[in-house]
Amino acid sequence: MSTNVFEIIVAGGGPSGCAAAIVLKQAGLNVCLINKEYNMPYKAGESIPGATMRLFKRLGIDTITDLLDDTEYKRCSANVSSWGSDDWVYSSGMLNPEGAGFHVDRVMFDKALLMKAKALGIPVYSAMIDDVVLNNDSDVRFKVSLREGEIQEVSANWLIDATGRKAVIGKKLGYKRTKVDNQMAVVNWVSFPKQDNDNSTRIKSVQEGWWYTSLLPGGKRVISFQGLSDEIGALYKNPEQLLEKFNSEAILPYKLTTQSLLHSNAVEAGIAKPESVIYNGVLCVGDAALSFDPLSSQGIFFALYSGIKAAESVIGCLDTPLQKDSILNHYQQLIDRVFMENQKSRKYFYSTEMRYFNKPYWKARRAF
């Protein structure tokens, strides 16, 4: 078995992992990325708020065109919602000083960030994580076994868990993760007619949950429904029923049929978090640190933010070892503050929908 030793291992090659690895490499540290290849053409999570541009600059990315070409993103013109009433409320992106943001081809976005990391000379292991061993008495604290044909091993004293909601590192090391919410979502990608040029984000609340849709690059539109698991399971198994329900809400000025359906997926869409985002040289980032309710549209932003902040924390610990505890506690406090602020906003928005107060989905929102 071959073993390669690094200062830091980043497990997970999504936005949070790439952001962490890029910042660590910029600081001159010996870092590697472990990335299980994603071979599907569709992936949920396409919204990039305008404020994300500040985070891009920290990664050496001046504009979104440094990552994606014109066919891989669309500007979001506005947020349009029917929430708490049947009326549609329009909020123009022009009113946001940082811009309304973008809708991206998420698969291409993730690939572009990974290419940015590779271009900096960061070794990327395209492999599954087979095992993680922690030994605090060893000169090298972590040994991570990779399954890529023959088993390889990488070692380091720091490990960043960027493995998403699955939180692979935490699970293998036996750390607990708590589900704060049990929300699910069924996500559908559809083709759309040529006359559809609505580049807004649209959401609408209904008795069983809420709808979301936005126009994507490449001739696709994403439609998702957020609800309780039984409802989501039924709609996932019956796409015709799902589209009928969507059409009945008049969210778009045209009807969709199953002939327009390109792909469907059912995913967890609730809030989940570990007891701590720091433990024994492991720092959690992205969904492994805190998975969001999709109502926030903060998934990509938080992924980049937490990846950057975790990397800066490791850099600080290596530069000033005597301040290690203080630096790591500060990172924990940052994530805790994000969680508390997100919960406050989330509770407020769900509380403004009073028409379905006693319906199971909306009662469940008030419980968290």
Q: How would you sum up the major sheet?
A: 7 strands, mixed
Give the structural class.
Answer: alpha/beta
| Number of structurally distinct domains | 2
The dominant shape is globular
Tell me the Rg in angstroms.
21 Å
Number of strands: 22
- Helix tally equals 9
CATH architecture identity of the largest domain: 3-Layer(bba) Sandwich
Report helical residue fraction.
25-40%
CATH level 4 superfamily of the largest domain: FAD/NAD(P)-binding domain
* Average pLDDT metric: 93
Strand content: 25-35%
Distance between the first and last residues' Cα: 47 Å
Model regions low in confidence, pLDDT < 50 over at least 5 residues:
none
- State the name of the first-level CATH class of the largest domain: Alpha Beta
The CATH topology annotation of the largest domain reads as: FAD/NAD(P)-binding domain
In spatial order, strands of the major sheet run 7-6-16-17-18-15-19
Give a written overview of the molecule.
With 368 residues, the protein is an alpha/beta fold. The chain has 2 domains: 3-74 and 101-180 and 271-348, FAD/NAD(P)-binding domain; 184-268, Alpha-Beta Plaits. The protein is 31% helix and 28% strand. It has a 7-stranded mixed sheet with strand order 7-6-16-17-18-15-19, with helices on one face. 39% of the residues are buried.
